[in-house]
Amino acid sequence: MEPLIYLDNNATTAVDPGVLEKMLPFFNQEYANASSTVHRAGKQAAAAVDQARKELAGLLNARESEFYFTSGSTEAINWALKGAYQRFREFRRHIITLQTEHKAVLDTCRYLEKQGAEVTYLPVQENGQVDPQELRSALKETTFLAAIMYANNETGVIQPVNEIAEVLKDHPALWFCDATQAVGKLPLDLSELPVDMLALSAHKFYGPKGAGALYIRKAARSTPVEPLLHGGGQQQGLRAGTLNVPGIVGLGEAARIAKMQMQTDAARIRPMRDALQDRLGALPGTLVQGSGVPRLYNTLNITFRFVRAEELIVSLPALALSAGSACTTGSLDPSHVLIAMGLSPEDARATLRISLGRFNTAESVQSAADALIAQVGRLRAGSPLWSMYRDGHIT
Length: 395
Ligand code: PLP
Known about the structure:
Layout: E1 5-6, H1 17-23, H2 25-28, H3 40-60, E2 67-70, H4 73-88, E3 94-98, H5 103-114, E4 118-122, H6 132-138, E5 143-147, H7 161-168, E6 174-178, E7 197-201, E8 212-216, H8 245-281, E9 286-288, E10 299-304, H9 309-314, E11 319-320, H10 336-340, H11 345-349, E12 351-355, H12 362-381, H13 384-390
Parallel strand pairs: 1-11, 3-4, 3-5, 5-6, 6-7
Antiparallel strand pairs: 2-8, 7-8, 9-10, 10-12
Pyridoxal-5'-phosphate (PLP) binds at residues 72-74, 102, 104, 149, 153, 178, 180-181, 201, 212, 326-327.
């Protein structure tokens, strides 16, 4: 079998070797329960958790006590949205979110609608960004939460966070930000970015799967969410349950490495992405999505018109690519993100997500481009629609 070229880093990343090394002793040597602080072993486990919290706080310039460890972003998102609804529903029930959010946000909003919440799903512009004026107009007296992400997992498009902050500044609504794709890739500073809550996940930045966090800003007012899990009182009574010490240690180490290596990663990965974009984008009948606005430096979302992305992926087994977000593949629906950006269902189905990471090399990305170009050509050669398009009979 040909070696795999992994180009699906927005779905998940490999665990960095340094992260793995740091985690290993916590499985069978330093395996004590971090709540068992009556003995020395438990104290050591608790100290390792504290260290991870420090690393996370250092990466995001926040306070250590503002992080609650979860199993990942889906859990953090569910907690933020449902927990805030429980807290506010008596007086305010309106949520604003974007049509291009991750399904973890959208499906939770749909669930909350069944519980009595009112949800506005804001459209985005063709470039994938929300118009801050639309956000302003959507705010009501009853809005208690704006769930607006940082960077999109499919297109990499970064929302205009400073303008969003400006709009939300004068309104009591909380800002929950799904920053799953931004943390570890971009220099986020929570002393400047006025989000009230934020979700992050270790496996998107070279940490392990099953470890993430919800950041909850310590404000003068009381905690904006109800507890997620009741039990042994861990994590200030808000998210009970024995802490996943190896996972949390891995998350902390991934955060420490990200802080150190973020600029180097960006400087190496961006040119590879740009070169890939230049080559693939030069093919006729291709469209690069979100190219006119700030985007994650590792992401290329590209439409090869009249080619089924799923067919393209299946026909190139040596490449790991995505036809949309991993969580929704398997469904026949075209990407809700691309549809919200105004693509036709046909063009959405012809769109591929290529997401690079720390362990890709320029040579392997070049070979992937060669393989893609050749295969797009082959698939189009058998397509009557492509011939009609090429000859100008259809647009
Ligand atoms: N939000 C975004 C933007 C994501 O990309 C993902 C991962 O696919 C999630 C949420 C869910 O994260 P997790 O896999 O940690 O539950």
